[in-house]
Amino acid sequence: MSSSWTCNQCTYVHSDAEAQFLCCAICSAERPKAIAPASAQAAAPAPAPAAARPRAKPPVGAKPRVSLSLQRPGPATTRPAPPPPPAPTPPVDEADAAAPPTTAKKKPLAPLFLPKKRPAPPPKARAPLKAPRTAAAWPIQSQRTVALRFSMARDGEGRVRASIERGGPQAPAAGRRRVFEAERTCKLALAHEGKAACDVKIHLTLDTAGEDGAAWRDRRTYTGARAAGGLGLLQSHLQKCVRRGNVDLAVRSAHELAGITFGPTDPAGIKMLVRRLPVIAVEDSAALPCIVPAVWYMMALSPTEKSPATYKPTAQDVLVLCACAAQLAAHGSRDRFPPPRKGRNELPTDGVNLALLIRAAYGGMKGDVAMLRERAHAAAPDETSPWLAPVAAPPALRPGDWLLEGVDFHQKGGEILGRMRAKDMALQFVSDEDLKKWIWHTRSKCNRRDAPREPSAPPPWADAAARAADAAARDMIAGAWRG
Protein backbone atom coordinates (compact mmCIF):
# COMPACT_ATOMS: atom_id res chain seq x y z
CA MET A 1 0.00 0.00 0.00
CA SER A 2 1.45 3.31 -1.08
CA SER A 3 1.90 5.93 1.59
CA SER A 4 2.40 8.95 -0.76
CA TRP A 5 0.01 11.89 -0.39
CA THR A 6 -0.96 14.99 -2.37
CA CYS A 7 -1.09 18.50 -0.95
CA ASN A 8 -4.50 20.14 -1.23
CA GLN A 9 -2.99 23.62 -1.50
CA CYS A 10 -0.25 23.34 -4.14
CA THR A 11 -1.15 19.84 -5.51
CA TYR A 12 2.42 18.65 -4.91
CA VAL A 13 2.61 14.82 -4.77
CA HIS A 14 4.78 13.64 -1.90
CA SER A 15 6.65 10.36 -2.43
CA ASP A 16 6.86 7.40 -0.11
CA ALA A 17 10.08 8.77 1.30
CA GLU A 18 8.24 11.94 2.31
CA ALA A 19 5.23 10.15 3.74
CA GLN A 20 6.27 10.92 7.30
CA PHE A 21 5.97 14.68 6.68
CA LEU A 22 2.96 16.25 8.40
CA CYS A 23 3.01 19.38 6.26
CA CYS A 24 3.92 20.17 2.69
CA ALA A 25 7.53 21.08 2.11
CA ILE A 26 6.54 23.40 -0.72
CA CYS A 27 3.73 25.56 0.68
CA SER A 28 3.78 24.46 4.35
CA ALA A 29 0.14 23.43 4.12
CA GLU A 30 -1.16 20.82 6.56
CA ARG A 31 -1.16 17.25 5.36
CA PRO A 32 -4.63 16.04 4.47
CA LYS A 33 -6.07 13.46 6.84
CA ALA A 34 -6.91 10.01 5.65
CA ILE A 35 -10.55 9.00 5.88
CA ALA A 36 -10.93 6.40 8.65
CA PRO A 37 -13.89 4.33 9.77
CA ALA A 38 -16.40 5.89 12.15
CA SER A 39 -15.24 3.74 15.08
CA ALA A 40 -11.66 4.69 14.46
CA GLN A 41 -12.61 8.32 14.16
CA ALA A 42 -14.39 8.19 17.52
CA ALA A 43 -11.45 6.51 19.24
CA ALA A 44 -8.82 8.70 17.70
CA PRO A 45 -7.63 11.53 19.92
CA ALA A 46 -8.16 15.13 18.84
CA PRO A 47 -5.25 16.49 16.83
CA ALA A 48 -3.05 19.07 18.41
CA PRO A 49 -3.35 22.72 17.30
CA ALA A 50 -1.33 23.71 14.27
CA ALA A 51 0.64 26.22 16.27
CA ALA A 52 1.71 23.54 18.83
CA ARG A 53 2.71 20.88 16.31
CA PRO A 54 6.33 20.83 15.12
CA ARG A 55 6.80 21.80 11.52
CA ALA A 56 8.36 19.05 9.43
CA LYS A 57 11.39 19.86 7.35
CA PRO A 58 12.34 18.26 4.05
CA PRO A 59 15.45 16.06 4.10
CA VAL A 60 18.76 17.62 3.35
CA GLY A 61 19.57 17.59 -0.35
CA ALA A 62 16.03 16.70 -1.45
CA LYS A 63 14.55 18.68 -4.31
CA PRO A 64 10.83 19.33 -4.33
CA ARG A 65 8.93 17.91 -7.24
CA VAL A 66 6.59 20.17 -9.15
CA SER A 67 3.27 18.81 -10.30
CA LEU A 68 2.43 19.09 -13.98
CA SER A 69 -1.26 19.62 -13.30
CA LEU A 70 -2.93 22.27 -15.50
CA GLN A 71 -5.36 23.29 -12.79
CA ARG A 72 -4.93 26.84 -11.52
CA PRO A 73 -4.66 26.99 -7.74
CA GLY A 74 -7.51 28.92 -6.18
CA PRO A 75 -7.13 31.67 -3.61
CA ALA A 76 -6.50 30.75 -0.04
CA THR A 77 -9.62 30.62 2.04
CA THR A 78 -9.70 33.04 4.93
CA ARG A 79 -12.06 33.06 7.80
CA PRO A 80 -14.22 36.16 8.16
CA ALA A 81 -13.28 38.40 11.05
CA PRO A 82 -15.78 38.44 13.90
CA PRO A 83 -17.91 41.59 14.07
CA PRO A 84 -16.77 44.21 16.58
CA PRO A 85 -18.65 44.33 19.86
CA PRO A 86 -21.40 46.96 20.02
CA ALA A 87 -20.48 50.28 21.59
CA PRO A 88 -21.87 50.86 25.04
CA THR A 89 -25.03 52.95 25.04
CA PRO A 90 -24.69 56.10 27.17
CA PRO A 91 -27.33 56.66 29.79
CA VAL A 92 -30.27 58.73 28.59
CA ASP A 93 -31.78 61.37 30.79
CA GLU A 94 -35.55 61.14 31.22
CA ALA A 95 -35.98 64.85 30.45
CA ASP A 96 -34.07 64.51 27.21
CA ALA A 97 -35.97 61.40 26.23
CA ALA A 98 -39.31 63.13 26.72
CA ALA A 99 -38.45 66.12 24.46
CA PRO A 100 -40.01 65.84 20.96
CA PRO A 101 -37.67 65.92 17.94
CA THR A 102 -37.22 69.29 16.25
CA THR A 103 -38.52 69.67 12.64
CA ALA A 104 -37.11 73.15 11.81
CA LYS A 105 -35.09 73.21 8.59
CA LYS A 106 -31.59 74.54 8.62
CA LYS A 107 -31.01 77.70 6.60
CA PRO A 108 -28.76 77.15 3.57
CA LEU A 109 -25.42 78.83 3.58
CA ALA A 110 -25.29 82.09 1.65
CA PRO A 111 -23.20 81.91 -1.54
CA LEU A 112 -19.79 83.37 -1.05
CA PHE A 113 -19.05 84.63 -4.56
CA LEU A 114 -22.36 86.20 -5.69
CA PRO A 115 -22.51 90.00 -5.47
CA LYS A 116 -25.05 91.55 -3.23
CA LYS A 117 -28.12 93.03 -4.86
CA ARG A 118 -28.00 96.77 -4.88
CA PRO A 119 -30.79 99.13 -5.85
CA ALA A 120 -30.62 100.43 -9.40
CA PRO A 121 -29.20 103.94 -9.69
CA PRO A 122 -31.68 106.66 -10.60
CA PRO A 123 -31.74 107.60 -14.30
CA LYS A 124 -29.58 110.52 -15.25
CA ALA A 125 -31.33 113.68 -16.27
CA ARG A 126 -30.96 114.47 -19.96
CA ALA A 127 -29.33 117.71 -20.74
CA PRO A 128 -31.29 120.04 -23.02
CA LEU A 129 -30.18 120.43 -26.61
CA LYS A 130 -27.55 123.06 -27.08
CA ALA A 131 -27.20 125.61 -29.80
CA PRO A 132 -25.32 124.53 -32.93
CA ARG A 133 -21.57 124.59 -32.40
CA THR A 134 -21.04 125.25 -36.08
CA ALA A 135 -23.19 126.29 -38.96
CA ALA A 136 -22.92 122.80 -40.44
CA ALA A 137 -24.19 120.48 -37.69
CA TRP A 138 -26.79 120.07 -34.98
CA PRO A 139 -25.40 118.31 -31.89
CA ILE A 140 -27.90 115.72 -30.81
CA GLN A 141 -28.19 112.65 -28.64
CA SER A 142 -28.84 109.33 -30.31
CA GLN A 143 -31.87 108.45 -28.17
CA ARG A 144 -33.85 111.57 -29.10
CA THR A 145 -36.50 111.80 -31.80
CA VAL A 146 -35.94 114.72 -34.14
CA ALA A 147 -38.71 116.40 -36.09
CA LEU A 148 -37.83 117.62 -39.58
CA ARG A 149 -39.91 119.56 -42.05
CA PHE A 150 -39.25 118.51 -45.66
CA SER A 151 -41.27 120.92 -47.76
CA MET A 152 -41.39 121.44 -51.51
CA ALA A 153 -43.03 124.32 -53.35
CA ARG A 154 -44.08 124.59 -57.00
CA ASP A 155 -44.70 127.89 -58.72
CA GLY A 156 -46.97 128.68 -61.64
CA GLU A 157 -44.26 127.84 -64.21
CA GLY A 158 -43.72 124.31 -62.90
CA ARG A 159 -40.43 125.06 -61.12
CA VAL A 160 -39.85 123.36 -57.78
CA ARG A 161 -37.74 124.12 -54.74
CA ALA A 162 -37.25 121.81 -51.76
CA SER A 163 -35.86 122.54 -48.30
CA ILE A 164 -35.25 120.60 -45.08
CA GLU A 165 -35.57 122.38 -41.74
CA ARG A 166 -36.00 121.44 -38.12
CA GLY A 167 -39.43 121.64 -36.62
CA GLY A 168 -42.98 120.55 -37.25
CA PRO A 169 -45.35 121.28 -40.13
CA GLN A 170 -46.33 124.79 -41.11
CA ALA A 171 -49.28 126.24 -42.95
CA PRO A 172 -48.83 126.90 -46.68
CA ALA A 173 -47.67 130.33 -47.74
CA ALA A 174 -50.09 132.92 -49.05
CA GLY A 175 -51.27 132.23 -52.58
CA ARG A 176 -50.44 128.51 -52.45
CA ARG A 177 -52.46 125.44 -51.66
CA ARG A 178 -51.35 122.16 -50.20
CA VAL A 179 -51.74 119.21 -52.55
CA PHE A 180 -49.84 116.54 -50.60
CA GLU A 181 -48.98 115.92 -46.97
CA ALA A 182 -47.58 112.83 -45.24
CA GLU A 183 -45.26 111.67 -42.47
CA ARG A 184 -42.31 109.34 -42.74
CA THR A 185 -40.04 107.94 -40.02
CA CYS A 186 -36.51 106.62 -40.37
CA LYS A 187 -33.18 106.37 -38.57
CA LEU A 188 -30.44 108.78 -39.61
CA ALA A 189 -26.79 107.98 -38.96
CA LEU A 190 -25.11 110.51 -36.68
CA ALA A 191 -21.64 109.73 -38.04
CA HIS A 192 -20.22 108.30 -41.22
CA GLU A 193 -18.84 105.37 -39.19
CA GLY A 194 -20.34 103.39 -36.35
CA LYS A 195 -23.92 102.61 -35.36
CA ALA A 196 -24.93 105.88 -33.68
CA ALA A 197 -28.32 106.92 -35.06
CA CYS A 198 -31.38 108.88 -34.07
CA ASP A 199 -35.05 108.48 -34.85
CA VAL A 200 -36.36 111.13 -37.20
CA LYS A 201 -39.94 112.04 -37.97
CA ILE A 202 -40.15 113.85 -41.30
CA HIS A 203 -43.20 115.82 -42.33
CA LEU A 204 -43.58 115.98 -46.12
CA THR A 205 -45.55 118.77 -47.75
CA LEU A 206 -46.08 119.99 -51.30
CA ASP A 207 -47.57 123.43 -51.89
CA THR A 208 -48.33 124.66 -55.37
CA ALA A 209 -49.33 127.98 -56.85
CA GLY A 210 -50.45 126.65 -60.24
CA GLU A 211 -52.24 123.74 -61.78
CA ASP A 212 -51.66 120.22 -60.54
CA GLY A 213 -50.73 119.00 -64.00
CA ALA A 214 -51.65 115.84 -65.84
CA ALA A 215 -51.01 112.55 -64.10
CA TRP A 216 -48.06 110.57 -65.39
CA ARG A 217 -49.20 107.72 -67.59
CA ASP A 218 -47.58 104.53 -68.78
CA ARG A 219 -45.68 105.40 -71.94
CA ARG A 220 -43.29 102.49 -72.03
CA THR A 221 -41.16 102.06 -75.10
CA TYR A 222 -39.00 99.55 -73.20
CA THR A 223 -40.41 96.55 -71.43
CA GLY A 224 -40.31 96.34 -67.68
CA ALA A 225 -40.14 92.54 -67.65
CA ARG A 226 -37.32 91.24 -65.52
CA ALA A 227 -36.23 88.79 -68.22
CA ALA A 228 -35.68 91.63 -70.70
CA GLY A 229 -33.93 93.86 -68.16
CA GLY A 230 -35.22 97.20 -69.44
CA LEU A 231 -35.03 98.88 -66.02
CA GLY A 232 -31.45 97.85 -65.38
CA LEU A 233 -30.29 98.72 -68.91
CA LEU A 234 -31.76 102.23 -68.80
CA GLN A 235 -30.39 102.87 -65.32
CA SER A 236 -26.89 101.83 -66.41
CA HIS A 237 -27.15 103.87 -69.61
CA LEU A 238 -28.14 106.96 -67.61
CA GLN A 239 -25.09 106.64 -65.35
CA LYS A 240 -22.68 106.12 -68.27
CA CYS A 241 -24.10 109.20 -70.03
CA VAL A 242 -23.57 111.31 -66.89
CA ARG A 243 -19.98 110.09 -66.67
CA ARG A 244 -19.29 111.05 -70.25
CA GLY A 245 -21.15 114.36 -69.97
CA ASN A 246 -23.74 113.50 -72.64
CA VAL A 247 -26.63 115.72 -71.53
CA ASP A 248 -29.03 114.80 -74.34
CA LEU A 249 -28.78 111.04 -73.85
CA ALA A 250 -28.90 111.45 -70.06
CA VAL A 251 -32.22 113.33 -70.27
CA ARG A 252 -33.70 110.84 -72.73
CA SER A 253 -32.56 107.89 -70.63
CA ALA A 254 -34.13 109.37 -67.49
CA HIS A 255 -37.37 110.05 -69.38
CA GLU A 256 -37.54 106.50 -70.74
CA LEU A 257 -36.72 105.02 -67.33
CA ALA A 258 -39.51 107.01 -65.68
CA GLY A 259 -41.89 105.80 -68.41
CA ILE A 260 -41.73 102.17 -67.24
CA THR A 261 -44.72 101.84 -64.91
CA PHE A 262 -46.93 98.95 -63.89
CA GLY A 263 -50.24 100.72 -63.72
CA PRO A 264 -51.05 104.03 -62.02
CA THR A 265 -50.25 102.64 -58.56
CA ASP A 266 -46.75 101.29 -59.26
CA PRO A 267 -44.44 103.77 -60.99
CA ALA A 268 -41.46 101.41 -60.83
CA GLY A 269 -39.32 103.43 -63.22
CA ILE A 270 -39.74 106.70 -61.31
CA LYS A 271 -38.95 104.97 -58.01
CA MET A 272 -35.73 103.60 -59.46
CA LEU A 273 -34.84 106.97 -60.99
CA VAL A 274 -35.24 108.98 -57.77
CA ARG A 275 -33.23 106.41 -55.80
CA ARG A 276 -30.42 106.36 -58.36
CA LEU A 277 -29.92 110.07 -58.99
CA PRO A 278 -28.31 110.83 -55.55
CA VAL A 279 -25.93 107.88 -55.96
CA ILE A 280 -24.89 109.03 -59.45
CA ALA A 281 -24.38 112.56 -58.14
CA VAL A 282 -21.95 111.52 -55.39
CA GLU A 283 -20.16 108.79 -57.35
CA ASP A 284 -19.72 110.40 -60.77
CA SER A 285 -20.56 114.11 -60.60
CA ALA A 286 -21.26 116.33 -57.56
CA ALA A 287 -23.86 116.60 -54.81
CA LEU A 288 -25.82 119.46 -56.38
CA PRO A 289 -28.95 121.03 -54.84
CA CYS A 290 -31.05 119.44 -57.58
CA ILE A 291 -30.95 116.10 -55.76
CA VAL A 292 -33.02 117.46 -52.85
CA PRO A 293 -36.29 117.33 -54.86
CA ALA A 294 -35.33 113.83 -56.02
CA VAL A 295 -35.09 112.67 -52.39
CA TRP A 296 -38.46 114.33 -51.65
CA TYR A 297 -40.05 112.34 -54.49
CA MET A 298 -38.39 109.16 -53.18
CA MET A 299 -39.97 109.60 -49.74
CA ALA A 300 -43.35 110.64 -51.13
CA LEU A 301 -43.46 107.48 -53.29
CA SER A 302 -42.58 105.18 -50.35
CA PRO A 303 -45.66 104.66 -48.15
CA THR A 304 -45.56 103.02 -44.74
CA GLU A 305 -48.11 101.24 -42.58
CA LYS A 306 -48.57 104.24 -40.32
CA SER A 307 -48.58 106.70 -43.20
CA PRO A 308 -50.00 105.03 -46.32
CA ALA A 309 -50.40 108.28 -48.25
CA THR A 310 -48.59 108.03 -51.61
CA TYR A 311 -47.86 110.83 -54.00
CA LYS A 312 -49.02 110.42 -57.59
CA PRO A 313 -46.42 111.98 -59.89
CA THR A 314 -47.36 114.15 -62.82
CA ALA A 315 -45.73 114.77 -66.18
CA GLN A 316 -44.17 117.97 -64.82
CA ASP A 317 -42.57 115.98 -61.97
CA VAL A 318 -40.90 113.63 -64.46
CA LEU A 319 -39.53 116.57 -66.45
CA VAL A 320 -38.15 118.06 -63.21
CA LEU A 321 -36.28 114.82 -62.56
CA CYS A 322 -34.96 114.90 -66.12
CA ALA A 323 -33.66 118.42 -65.39
CA CYS A 324 -31.78 117.01 -62.40
CA ALA A 325 -30.14 114.40 -64.66
CA ALA A 326 -29.20 117.16 -67.12
CA GLN A 327 -27.49 119.22 -64.40
CA LEU A 328 -25.50 116.22 -63.18
CA ALA A 329 -24.33 115.41 -66.71
CA ALA A 330 -23.42 119.04 -67.48
CA HIS A 331 -21.42 119.56 -64.28
CA GLY A 332 -17.76 119.75 -65.22
CA SER A 333 -15.94 118.52 -62.09
CA ARG A 334 -16.18 115.91 -59.42
CA ASP A 335 -17.33 116.70 -55.91
CA ARG A 336 -14.23 117.33 -53.80
CA PHE A 337 -15.05 117.48 -50.10
CA PRO A 338 -12.97 117.33 -46.92
CA PRO A 339 -13.11 114.18 -44.81
CA PRO A 340 -15.85 114.17 -42.19
CA ARG A 341 -15.04 114.96 -38.59
CA LYS A 342 -14.67 112.02 -36.23
CA GLY A 343 -15.91 111.61 -32.69
CA ARG A 344 -19.06 113.74 -33.07
CA ASN A 345 -22.60 112.49 -33.19
CA GLU A 346 -24.54 115.21 -34.94
CA LEU A 347 -26.91 115.88 -37.79
CA PRO A 348 -25.91 118.16 -40.65
CA THR A 349 -27.93 121.30 -41.20
CA ASP A 350 -27.24 121.67 -44.92
CA GLY A 351 -30.22 120.57 -47.01
CA VAL A 352 -28.12 118.63 -49.52
CA ASN A 353 -26.29 116.71 -46.79
CA LEU A 354 -29.52 115.91 -44.99
CA ALA A 355 -31.04 114.71 -48.25
CA LEU A 356 -28.07 112.39 -48.82
CA LEU A 357 -28.38 111.09 -45.26
CA ILE A 358 -32.07 110.37 -45.77
CA ARG A 359 -31.30 108.59 -49.03
CA ALA A 360 -28.71 106.43 -47.22
CA ALA A 361 -31.35 105.53 -44.61
CA TYR A 362 -33.52 104.02 -47.36
CA GLY A 363 -30.87 101.36 -48.06
CA GLY A 364 -29.25 99.98 -51.17
CA MET A 365 -25.89 98.48 -52.01
CA LYS A 366 -23.48 98.49 -49.08
CA GLY A 367 -20.85 100.52 -50.92
CA ASP A 368 -23.38 103.11 -52.09
CA VAL A 369 -24.78 103.58 -48.57
CA ALA A 370 -21.29 104.05 -47.09
CA MET A 371 -20.41 106.57 -49.82
CA LEU A 372 -23.60 108.58 -49.19
CA ARG A 373 -23.04 108.67 -45.43
CA GLU A 374 -19.46 109.83 -45.82
CA ARG A 375 -20.46 112.66 -48.17
CA ALA A 376 -23.42 113.63 -45.97
CA HIS A 377 -21.22 114.19 -42.91
CA ALA A 378 -18.61 116.26 -44.76
CA ALA A 379 -18.50 119.97 -44.00
CA ALA A 380 -20.63 122.02 -46.39
CA PRO A 381 -21.94 125.59 -46.31
CA ASP A 382 -25.61 126.25 -45.74
CA GLU A 383 -27.06 127.18 -49.10
CA THR A 384 -30.60 127.84 -50.18
CA SER A 385 -31.83 125.40 -52.79
CA PRO A 386 -32.51 127.24 -56.05
CA TRP A 387 -35.57 126.78 -58.20
CA LEU A 388 -35.34 123.76 -60.52
CA ALA A 389 -37.15 124.27 -63.81
CA PRO A 390 -38.46 121.31 -65.82
CA VAL A 391 -36.96 120.55 -69.22
CA ALA A 392 -38.86 120.16 -72.45
CA ALA A 393 -40.19 116.70 -73.22
CA PRO A 394 -37.35 114.87 -75.01
CA PRO A 395 -37.75 112.56 -78.02
CA ALA A 396 -37.90 108.82 -77.55
CA LEU A 397 -34.67 106.93 -77.05
CA ARG A 398 -34.49 104.37 -79.84
CA PRO A 399 -32.10 101.39 -79.92
CA GLY A 400 -29.90 103.06 -82.51
CA ASP A 401 -29.39 106.10 -80.25
CA TRP A 402 -27.87 104.18 -77.37
CA LEU A 403 -24.36 104.54 -76.09
CA LEU A 404 -23.20 100.93 -76.43
CA GLU A 405 -20.76 101.33 -73.55
CA GLY A 406 -23.80 101.78 -71.30
CA VAL A 407 -24.38 98.01 -71.32
CA ASP A 408 -21.93 96.17 -69.08
CA PHE A 409 -21.70 93.09 -66.88
CA HIS A 410 -23.87 94.55 -64.08
CA GLN A 411 -27.11 93.86 -65.99
CA LYS A 412 -28.98 90.56 -66.01
CA GLY A 413 -26.32 88.65 -64.11
CA GLY A 414 -23.46 89.32 -66.49
CA GLU A 415 -25.31 88.07 -69.56
CA ILE A 416 -23.09 90.13 -71.83
CA LEU A 417 -20.12 87.85 -71.07
CA GLY A 418 -21.82 84.80 -72.53
CA ARG A 419 -23.03 86.75 -75.53
CA MET A 420 -19.51 88.01 -76.20
CA ARG A 421 -18.14 84.47 -76.22
CA ALA A 422 -20.90 83.42 -78.58
CA LYS A 423 -19.99 86.26 -80.97
CA ASP A 424 -16.28 85.49 -81.11
CA MET A 425 -14.74 82.07 -80.42
CA ALA A 426 -11.40 83.70 -79.57
CA LEU A 427 -12.92 84.76 -76.23
CA GLN A 428 -13.77 81.22 -75.15
CA PHE A 429 -10.51 80.87 -73.25
CA VAL A 430 -10.69 84.31 -71.56
CA SER A 431 -11.86 84.15 -67.95
CA ASP A 432 -14.82 86.11 -66.61
CA GLU A 433 -12.57 88.16 -64.34
CA ASP A 434 -10.37 89.26 -67.24
CA LEU A 435 -13.39 90.20 -69.35
CA LYS A 436 -14.98 92.16 -66.50
CA LYS A 437 -11.73 94.01 -65.81
CA TRP A 438 -11.37 94.90 -69.49
CA ILE A 439 -15.01 96.13 -69.73
CA TRP A 440 -14.65 98.25 -66.59
CA HIS A 441 -11.42 99.99 -67.55
CA THR A 442 -12.18 100.54 -71.25
CA ARG A 443 -15.95 101.07 -71.35
CA SER A 444 -17.73 101.56 -68.01
CA LYS A 445 -15.28 103.55 -65.89
CA CYS A 446 -14.55 106.40 -68.31
CA ASN A 447 -15.41 109.80 -66.75
CA ARG A 448 -14.61 113.06 -68.49
CA ARG A 449 -14.07 114.76 -65.11
CA ASP A 450 -11.05 112.58 -64.31
CA ALA A 451 -7.54 113.52 -65.35
CA PRO A 452 -6.32 111.62 -68.41
CA ARG A 453 -4.08 108.68 -67.68
CA GLU A 454 -1.68 106.78 -69.85
CA PRO A 455 -3.49 103.64 -71.00
CA SER A 456 -1.97 100.29 -70.20
CA ALA A 457 -1.03 97.78 -72.88
CA PRO A 458 -4.21 96.11 -74.18
CA PRO A 459 -4.49 92.31 -74.15
CA PRO A 460 -4.14 90.47 -77.46
CA TRP A 461 -7.86 89.77 -77.60
CA ALA A 462 -8.93 93.43 -77.00
CA ASP A 463 -10.09 94.10 -80.60
CA ALA A 464 -12.16 90.93 -80.69
CA ALA A 465 -13.67 91.79 -77.30
CA ALA A 466 -14.62 95.32 -78.46
CA ARG A 467 -16.46 94.00 -81.51
CA ALA A 468 -18.17 91.27 -79.51
CA ALA A 469 -19.21 93.69 -76.73
CA ASP A 470 -20.83 96.10 -79.20
CA ALA A 471 -22.71 93.28 -80.91
CA ALA A 472 -23.86 91.80 -77.60
CA ALA A 473 -25.01 95.23 -76.36
CA ARG A 474 -27.12 95.76 -79.51
CA ASP A 475 -28.81 92.40 -79.01
CA MET A 476 -29.63 93.12 -75.37
CA ILE A 477 -31.02 96.58 -76.20
CA ALA A 478 -33.15 95.15 -79.00
CA GLY A 479 -34.49 92.51 -76.60
CA ALA A 480 -35.72 95.21 -74.21
CA TRP A 481 -37.12 97.48 -76.95
CA ARG A 482 -40.89 97.52 -77.08
CA GLY A 483 -41.38 99.85 -80.03
TrEMBL record:
Residues 46-135, 448-468 are annotated as: Disordered. It comes from the Eukaryota. Residues 46-65, 97-114, 126-135 have a biased composition (Low complexity). Residues 80-91 have a biased composition (Pro residues). This is Uncharacterized protein.
